[in-house]
Amino acid sequence: MEKRSTVEIYFGGPDRPPRHLRNILAERIAAVPAGGSIDWATYYFRDLELAEALIQAHQRGVKVTVTLEGKPRLPDANEDVIALLSRPSGLGDALRVVTIPGIPAPAGKSWKPQLHEKLYCFSHPEPIAFIGSFNPSGNAQEEKPEIIREIGDQDRAHNVLVGFTDPILVEQLVRHARQLHQVPPGLFYRFSAEANRAVNGEDTVIHFWPRVAPHPVIQFLSRVRSGARIRIVASHIRAESAAEVMIGLANRGVTVEIFADSTLRRVTPKVEQRLIAANVRLTRVKGGEELPMHLKFVLIEDNQQAWSIFGSFNWTKPSFWLNHEIAAISSNPLLFKTFAERADYLKYC
């Protein structure tokens, strides 16, 4: 008997129908019956239809928890959904809005941790937990186009949702979502066991941060050997330390290729110049502010072994040190093949 895959992978982008990924989430909400559960934690959430669907699920007896960043980069972006979910006929205590206090920073700097995870768990028709890069941040009838101009049209942008059906991963990702909801994270979260643990599935390991343990992606890349090939698909590369990791790989004989967002805000010219000077091939994916390349994944081929790394993390200082993020490191061959095909597609965008 052929082994059943424990992953589902869906891409959004200009080659997909508009609102493709949010429609997948809508279908999953509708499929959960009374007595089932839906657990979300996300950064931007502006989709009023999805918010209404969660309220309807709650009213029909689904156990719903939604944990949402209260002050994202665009501080008032989530306000309409928060107002809808907070009304008397909304989610009540099932909604948790998280605003983590900032930490002391030099003049002109803002060091404010944010809930940047994208996690969507459903109990039916079979238990599944999605992670990835997609925020449900648009509306069919957009009344605030200035917000979309600022954050980009995520319903048409390059994004991904990866759904796990491995029971171990689903159980632990649901546990994580409910932990965030029950005990809102604060400045000392990084010292907790929850932040520093790893969830080991059949062929995939899930990591969370902020943490005091070393950055799991950087740790993994440090073990890649000369002669390997690495493809990095990144919406944001701003940290000098991130550039140093990529340059260090190239200097020790690893072939490094990067597909990056086209905007200078997300991938700085200084970082780009340093990478190119180190013989790292960098391709900017067209789209601009309106249609960002919001994917976040890494493909590694080393001595006939292959891994894919993906999640919510960016190559920025806030993502490295402050934000709440999820990453998966997987040897699942279907995931690698599907991500590799997407990287090939990005070459010609």
Under CATH, the homologous superfamily of the largest domain reads Endonuclease Chain A
The domain tally reads 2
List SSEs in N-to-C order: EHEHEHEEEHEHHEEHEHEHEEEHEH
Low-confidence stretches: none
Inertia-based shape: globular
Structure class: alpha+beta
Q: Taking all residues together, what is the mean pLDDT?
A: 94
The helix count comes to: 11
Per CATH, the class of the largest domain reads: Alpha Beta
Strand order of the largest sheet: 8-9-15-14-13-10-11-12
Strand content: 15-25%
Q: N-to-C terminal Cα separation, in Å?
A: 39 Å
CATH architecture name of the largest domain: 2-Layer Sandwich
How many DSSP-defined strands?
15
Description:
- There is one protein chain.
- This protein has 349 residues and is α+β, with helices and mostly antiparallel strands.
- It has 2 domains: 7-208, Endonuclease Chain A (Endonuclease, Chain A); 214-346, Endonuclease, Chain A, CATH 3.30.870.
- 31% of the residues lie in helices and 24% in strands.
- The protein has helices at residues 20-31, 48-59, 79-86, 145-151, 167-182, 193-196, 216-222, 240-251, 269-277, 317-322, 333-346, and strands spanning 7-12, 37-42, 63-69, 95-98, 119-122, 128-132, 159-164, 198-200, 204-209, 229-234, 255-261, 281-285, 296-302, 305-311, 325-330.
- The strands form 2 sheets. It has an 8-stranded mixed sheet, with helices on both faces. It has a 7-stranded mixed sheet with strand order 1-7-6-5-2-3-4, sandwiched between helices.
- The radius of gyration is 19 Å and the shape is globular.
Give the topology, please:
Layout lengths: L6 E6 L7 H12 L5 E6 L5 H12 L3 E7 L9 H8 L8 E4 L20 E4 L5 E5 L12 H7 L7 E6 L2 H16 L10 H4 L1 E3 L3 E6 L6 H7 L6 E6 L5 H12 L3 E7 L7 H9 L3 E5 L10 E7 L2 E7 L5 H6 L2 E6 L2 H14 L3
Parallel strand pairs: 2-3, 3-4, 10-11, 11-12
Antiparallel strand pairs: 1-7, 2-5, 5-6, 6-7, 8-9, 9-15, 10-13, 13-14, 14-15
Helix pairs in contact: 1-2, 2-3
